Amino acid sequence: MRLLVFQHIAIEHPGVFREFLKEDGVRWDAIELDEGQPIPDLRAYEALWVMGGPMDVWDVEDHPWLIPEKRAIRQWVRELRRPFLGICLGHQLLADSVGGTCGPQRPPEVGIMEVSLTEDGKRDPVFGRQPATAKALQWHGVRVAQPPEDAVVLASSPACRVQAMRVGDRAWSAQYHVELEDSTISAWGCVPEYAAALERTQGAGALQRMADEAKPLMPSFKDCARRLYQDFMKSASAMALAQ
Q1: pLDDT tens digits for 115-132?
Q2: By the 8 A CB rule, do 49 and 5 touch?
Q3: How many Å is the Cα radius of gyration of the chain?
């Protein structure tokens, strides 16, 4: 399998998934869209991952590359119909690209918070082996307000109804961060937009408190990430063989 990854800031890469990709010998190409790297021929790839970033889906004047990115996501999901996984901004971009809408998350979700699977999520081939309720890293001020018509909500939280979804039968996304690794929180705390959101919602010293809270949870975070990765790749491989 050949994997294409869209990135929007260098530090928001596939995180711990890189370890799993290396173990499986999966070839993957990262396109840093915010640095002007062009989108390659999508037909050369079997799966697409879209990662997070500090911009919002509607920031097309400041980040005009969002326009061709949304076009590429729409082509991938609606025309090519190949496996897709979006995380945080990638979750929102999926909705925005294929008929859903996004809006402000009030209040913003920033911190380690609980996410629960829906009944549909418990039966889903990719999310079904995730815990029924688990803590996850949240760091977002935008939400999927209205999922696309053919979307199924797979996970929710009290503040955000669409924490994860499946669009059609080949595109999955999560608002929360399943790719978390040991260095993630400290690295993201250096991004001005992320640091500001954290201070506004959690107060002074929030970065260290978040890191302290996350540390004992890292084994369970990694276990959830591995299962999600395995189940996505299993589904993606089956779809590739069927084409």
Answers
A1: 999 999 999 999 999 999
A2: yes
A3: 17
| Active site residues per annotation | 88, 177, 179
**Cβ atoms within 10 Å of 25's Cβ, excluding its own:** 7
> What CATH number is associated with residue 108?
3.40.50.880
Q: Which two tokens stand for residue 219?
A: 């084994």
Phi, psi of 76 (to 5 degrees): -60, -50
Tell whether 234 is covered by a domain: no
b/e code 146-160 from CB counts within 10 Å (16+ = b): ebbeebbbbbbbeeb
Say if 235 falls within a structural domain.
no
User: Cα angle vertex 70, ends 11, 99, to 5°?
Assistant: 125
pTM: 0.95
Whole domain around residue 98: which residue ranges? 2-227
Per the structure, the count of domains in the chain is 1
For residues 46 and 83, the answer to whether their CB atoms sit within 8 Å is: yes
Question: Distances from the Cα of 96 to the Cαs of 3, 7, 69, 86, in angstroms?
Answer: 22, 17, 11, 12
Sequential DSSP letters for 190-221: TSHHHHHHHHHHH-TTHHHHHHHHHGGGHHHH
